[in-house]
Amino acid sequence: MADIEVLPEFHAVCPAPFGWVAVAVEEDAVREIRILGQPPERTGIPEPLAETVCRKLQEWFAGGDWPQGIPVNPEGTAYQKKVWQALLRIPSGETLTYGELARQLSSGSRAIGGACRRNPV
User: Fold this and answer.
1) At what angle do helices 109-117 and 78-88 cross, to 10 degrees?
2) Is the pTM of this model over 0.90?
């Protein structure tokens, strides 16, 4: 039997150069952004914040600036959230290796990689 993936309720879905982007919000913050191969069959009730995020992402895909000031509150462990907050502090256009981020956070690079892999935003 094939695995069944349960998708959270998305509040906006928009086309992207690589497929579709679905946005879920909760309490005035983005909970999840997911890349999809095709649009989901159903979505939740449209939310203004989710629609704004889709619009900003589409502007970025078209060559605009990286969206700034979008409130995010993804679900995760305290450690994952610590790593995700550190990712938000990386300036646009710059890169940081897992090892460099691990040194900044006094952690291991594999743990950093695991947290990055689980980042829903």
Assistant:
1) 90
2) no
Please provide the distance, in angstroms rounded to a whole number, between the alpha carbons at the two ends of the chain: 30
1-73: which CATH number, 3.40.50.720, 3.30.160.70, 3.40.109.30, 3.40.30.10?
3.30.160.70
Partners of residue 30 on adjacent β-strands: 25, 72
80 and 115 Cβ atoms separated by less than 8 Å: yes
Q: Beta 19-26 vs 29-36: how paired, if at all? A: antiparallel
Q: What is the pLDDT of residues 77-111, one digit of tens each?
A: 999 999 999 998 998 889 999 999 999 999 999 99
